[in-house]
Fold these 2 entries.
Entry 1:
Amino acid sequence: MPTPKLFIPGPIDVSHATYAAMSRPMIGHRGSEFEALYASTQPGLQQLAGTKRPVFLSTSSAWGVMEAALRNLTQKKVLTLCNGAFSDKWFDVAKKCGKEVEKLQYEWGQPIDPAQVRTKLAEGGFDTVTFIHNETSTGVMSDLAAIAAVVKSFPDVLLIVDTVSSFSAVPHAMDELGIDVLLAGVQKAMALPPGLTVFAISEAALERSKASKDRGYYFDFVEFEKNAAANNTPSTPAISLIFGLQHILETIAAEGLENRFARHRENNRLIHDWAARHGFQHFAPEGFRSVSLSCFHTPEGFDQSAFIKNLKTKHNFLINGGYGKIKGITFRISNMGNETSATMNELIAAMDDVLG
Ligand SMILES: *Cc1c(COP(=O)(O)O)cnc(C)c1O
């Protein structure tokens, strides 16, 4: 049996063309060839992030930059907005970094309420906020623009936004919304193998970072900024992944951003229609459902693990049986990356077959 095709919400299926691009012969990273490669990624990444600032390439998974953002920016106290596995963990990571931290906790499956963020920040003492745009564990997409507007009304508070599973699936407007750090691991919506995270920081974040004493070296934002000015990275990057990134950005440009966003909405709708036909209920409330993945309640008496296992053994497709404390009681299907209505319909036909 070949490796199953991934419809789990990360890592996701990687195209043969991407693997081919990644297998180009190695180049040195301190030379004009690498600088040209790096420079070629900038317009596409800046467009996806909605920023005129440089977009840095970090050889790490998303957590590297999620932790780095705290180490570079939190000098007083961070407010973590928690409504799922990844956002909840950010609170623990802040504690492990020795930061003063408070959280605004929501039930898993609920979005972040901007009005409560305002009330909490008004208590004072905070200098940073962490926010996950698309909680991949629950399929909830909170209102980034509304949260950003609230945080921006507190001039000394910097906003750190994880767009791991929404980057390139929906438009982003970092500069317009006043986001201070926007980050995304490439193994989710970008359809690359894991190991690289793209991120941009505002001028204010750069200034804050310069004044932070214990920000280390590997994830030092000031080092990233300095090297980016010369189209380079502080340390040896995952060059093969950057070849892959260059390729993906070319495919995104060729498709056109609006077409790409529309394709994600359409693929997502196909899964929603399938779920409605079978009576599967969404975990996320209407109006806050992700367009890059879907999370459903496992119905009473439904043998979810047999469903997932049979889909794999019979059709070689892999979906996910829930994450963290909602493992088993939910299941998730990704429509990120290169999927088309044809490939989604293949998955749907296979799921229908397994359901009988
Ligand atoms: C997957 C994911 C992460 C963690 O990414 P790693 O690559 O495992 O570091 C963080 N945030 C969100 C929203 C994710 O989906």
Entry 2:
Amino acid sequence: MSDIVNNIKNIRNRIVLACERAGREADSVELLLATKTVTPDRVRIAIEAGETLLGENRIQEFAVKNPELSDLKYERHFIGHLQANKVKDIVKYGIDCVQSLDSVELIHLLDRRFQAEGRSLDVLVQVNTSFEASKFGLNPGEVFAFLEELKKYDTLKFKGFMTIGLFDSDAEAVRLSYTRLRELRDRAIAEGIISPESKELSMGMSTDLETAIEEGATIVRVGSAIFGKRN
Ligand SMILES: *Cc1c(COP(=O)(O)O)cnc(C)c1O
């Protein structure tokens, strides 16, 4: 069996075990394959093994992979920093969800594009829960005002939140980032700022998905544990 298929089995097993420990249903967590720098033929192996959710950090990678994988069905999420001049490509490359919405400027640009298309786009709001200066995303204190603004745009369907945890090899040190995101969502629901259905929490990666699931992750984004180390 290929390494990739084997690795996916291991990750799916880790998800099931983490859900059991957390008293959650195994199907309450989706696996997103973080496929940056992974060649299309290797991505194909994962999709043919049954995976259906792909995330890229750079639009350019969709441009390369879409044509090579055009015979396959899968969902495309954008998980990197979105630059204003790339907004048109979100439409062009058939992105289903932008997980990294973090500015009013992007709201306006995406709204204009999707109004012109006559359709809507799923979005997650990225929050910088570790307060690292190098990270994109809103500060937690800015999020509620941002959500009130986002509500005015019918083209953008708010589904929940995304965060990249503290950069630290110790999963326990990362946990606080994930706790913060869950508490932010729960408070937004309790205060009636968002609907209880907008509950997605995209958090957790190869090394810390267990911690993220314990803290309520509904989407974990896994790259290197499936496709191997990146250069
Ligand atoms: C690369 C990446 C991941 C996956 O990281 P791994 O450590 O390879 O599992 C998750 N989220 C984002 C935003 C990424 O860029």
